[in-house]
Design brief:
196 residues, five-stranded parallel beta sheet, 8 helices
C-alpha cells in the first residue's frame, strides 16, 4: 500500500539529515485527519528530513503563512477552497487519491489487487475454507480491485468467495440503519467458520 511504500523506501534509502534551513517544507493537505495516511507520510518525512505541516488535515484550511516546497494531497477528500489552493500552487503535488479528478498531479496509489490477495492469503494461512467480502459500493475502483485480488486467490486455492454487496440495497432503500440487520441475515446463510 501507499503507506508501506513511503515507509519501505525510507528504510531502504535513508536520507541524510539536513540543517533546518535546508529542509524541504511539505504540506499534507487532506481536509481531515486520516490516521494511516498521516502516519505513513509522517514516518517518511522524518526519515527524509522534511518539515511536515499536517494542519490542513485537521482543520481543512491552509495556514495563511505557509510557504513550502511541495504538497501531498487526497483530492477526493477535499473541500473546494483547499482543492483550489492546491490547484493554484506552483509546487510539486502528489495525490494519493484513487481516481483523482486532477490529472496533472502526480499520483501514488496502493496496489488494491495485491491488498485483496494478501488478505485472502492471510485467511487461507489460518485454515479458513469459507470466504466472504462485504462492500457498500462494489462499483468503486478500490473495492472492485480488492475483490478481484481476494477472489482470484481464494478460487486458486479451490474455494468460493461470497460477495455481500449492499450497494443495491442502499440505492433502493437509502436507509443505513437497515444495513446491519441485512448483513446479519446474509452472514447466517453462509457456511461457517467464515473469513470475511
Amino acid at each position: 500500500s501507499i503507506f508501506f511504500l513511503f515507509i519501505h523506501q525510507a528504510t531502504r534509502n535513508p536520507v541524510p539529515k539536513r540543517s533546518l534551513s535546508s529542509k524541504k517544507r511539505v504540506l499534507l493537505a487532506m481536509r481531515w485527519y486520516i490516521h494511516a495516511i498521516n502516519l505513513g507520510v509522517a514516518r517518511y518525512a522524518q526519515q527524509a528530513g522534511w518539515v511536515l505541516d499536517d494542519s490542513a488535515s485537521h482543520c481543512g484550511e491552509v495556514p495563511a503563512s505557509w510557504r513550502g516546497d511541495g504538497i501531498i494531497t487526497l483530492t477526493t477528500n477535499m473541500s473546494s477552497p483547499l482543492l483550489e489552493f492546491v490547484k493554484r500552487s506552483r509546487l510539486p503535488v502528489v495525490d494519493v487519491a484513487a481516481g483523482s479528478s486532477v490529472p496533472r498531479f502526480s499520483r501514488v496509489q496502493p496496489d488494491n489487487f495485491a491488498i485483496g490477495r494478501v488478505a485472502a492469503e492471510e485467511f487461507l494461512g489460518r485454515g479458513f475454507q469459507h470466504f466472504a467480502f462485504f462492500t457498500l459500493d462494489r462499483t468503486a475502483p478500490v473495492v472492485s480491485e480488492r475483490i478481484r485480488g481476494f477472489r482470484a486467490t481464494v478460487e486458486q486455492a479451490g474455494h468460493r468467495l461470497h460477495v455481500l454487496d449492499y450497494t443495491g440495497q442502499i440505492k433502493i432503500k437509502g436507509k443505513w440503519e437497515d444495513m446491519l440487520p441485512w448483513l446479519g441475515r446474509e452472514l447466517k446463510k453462509l457456511p461457517k467458520p467464515l473469513a470475511a
